[in-house]
Amino acid sequence: MSDYNPLKSYPYSKNRLLIIDWSSLAYHQWFAIASKNSTAYLEIDDSEDELYVWRTRMINKMVDYIKLFNPRDILITLEGTKVWRNQIVRDYYNEHTTVYYDKSGYYLRFDNFLYKATKNEGGGIDVDKLDIVKDADLLPATHKKLGEMPDRAKELLWRLQYISPKLVAKPALPKYKGTRSAKYWPFMTEKKDWKNHKEEFAKQIQKVFRSHTIGQSNAEGDDAIYVA
């Protein structure tokens, strides 16, 4: 560990508050044990081994931070499941997405993207990515903002998925954090189980480190850092 001590660079204060974005730290420590070298060296054979190693790494990190910053108070911020940014992104693209439509289907135009959604023979919907410049002449005359569409049509358009050249399904319309939840997960522990475990573990260790866990369902861990 580096000998650098940030306390030497700042005026001494009796109000030293350490805020830990628990989710961010947890993900970093979790993926650190995913490499083949780590798995073999630590003799990780099952989910219980994974969780044990992760808990050990988290405790060690907490000790490192306390030694480094010598805080008087510690806040551990937990991750909400219905964060406010989801609605902010949705509101923005309801306002800034233009929907062109006729009997052939719907065209979605936003930012530098253009998609066409048409019903296929099986009753499903095919979504094709078009060139926003070269294919501009395909756009029907009738159009509205996405937010002005009837609720049923609007919800349908928000659920559209585009199949990429690599055969990966992605949302046609932008969403906060996009497809991050579907990212590579090389673990024996189910993702849902681990996410629940990491939140519970934070609550379990708060007394050990004389810390407090805080969180709201509509906020992420770093939101507390921004307002502190």
How are the strands ordered across the major sheet? 6-5-4-3-7
Q: What is the CATH C level class of the largest domain, in words?
A: Alpha Beta
For the sheet with most strands, the description reads: 5 strands, antiparallel
Determine the fraction of residues in helical runs and give it as a percent range.
Answer: 25-40%
As a whole number of angstroms, the C-alpha radius of gyration is: 24 Å
Written description of the protein model:
- This protein has helices at 22-32, 36-41, 47-69, 84-96, 151-158, 191-205, 221-227, and strands at residues 17-21, 73-77, 98-102, 105-110, 113-119, 125-130, 143-145, 161-163, 169-171, 211-214.
- The chain is of the alpha+beta class and 228 residues long.
- It folds into two domains: 13-83 and 181-227, Rossmann fold (3-Layer(aba) Sandwich); 84-175, no CATH class.
- It has a five-stranded antiparallel beta sheet. Strands 1-2-10 form a three-stranded parallel beta sheet, sandwiched between helices.
- Helix 1 (22-32) packs across helix 3.
- The chain is elongated and about 65 Å long.
- 15% of the residues are buried.
